[in-house]
Amino acid sequence: MTSAFDAPGDWLKGNLHLHTTVSDGEKTPQQAVDGYREHGYDFLSITDHDRVVDVDELDGGGMTLVHGIEIAPPGAELGQTIHMVGIGMSGEPEKVEGEMAQQALDRLNTLAQVSFVAHPSWSSLTFADILPLEGIIGVEVFNTTCRRGIGRGTSEVQWDECLARGREFFGLAVDDAHCHYDDLYGGWVMLRAEENTREAICAALAAGHFYASSGPTIEHVAIDGETLRVECSPCVEVFAVCPMPGRGTTNWRIGGGREAATAFDLPLRAGTDPIRIVVIDEAGRRAWTNPFWLD
Questions:
Q1: In the chain, what are the domain boundaries?
Q2: pLDDT digits (tens, 9 = 90+) for 136-189
Q3: pTM for this one?
Q4: Is residue 144 within 8 Å of residue 212, measured between CB atoms?
Q5: Domain 10-213, classified CATH 3.30.470.30, yes or no
């Protein structure tokens, strides 16, 4: 599988989870679009609860607007609902009360180009809730409103458990902004596509040609035999995370972790597969690659 760093095209910045006054947000759809455009985003999906906002009626001002929705069917192991986001919607799915997660997801995917599980940590989802779902590209690894609202914005544990059990899931960073407090512009995906269109954006998402960030930029990742090279904006820590027991490495192991750098070379032990890269800047903000499957 071609990684985002080797795929053709340009880098595009986008947010794929956002709520407006159409459901439980505090900004109108146009106010939300205007804010993301002013902050330099290239694309945006409005994903109100159980409603598809007709973004064709909005002025994107050069930003690509993608139809989206969030649904929340019941059925999680600990009694919660399982929130899922659909991107590239061609219509609005019927809501069937009491319909369980897979059936609701199947209905969603008749209209969505891609879908993923939202905020596993906020929802207290276990890997058993996510693992059997068929038809998702991955999970939110970072969610701004969950970070700033209740301190549970990252979901690396659930992601890694699914990877360790063989699911080739991607990780996305989003805002999920409602604007009840400052939850805007904190998480995004950097996506590699040959053009800034809805079709190209959805195709790149489906192919995993993106990385997730809450701040740092990842310029390039290359794996040559047993050596990993990461080029990024100034960061103090780099992790090569493997979900298998006792695998992976960090720059601390080679005497790093003290000063910011823009390039890191790490040795990889045999059997470190799959791996995903995490970079951390001096402010503690992170960026996450999608997994690399080396075998």
A1: 10-213, 218-288
A2: 999 999 999 999 999 999 999 999 999 999 999 999 999 999 999 999 999 999
A3: 0.97
A4: no
A5: no
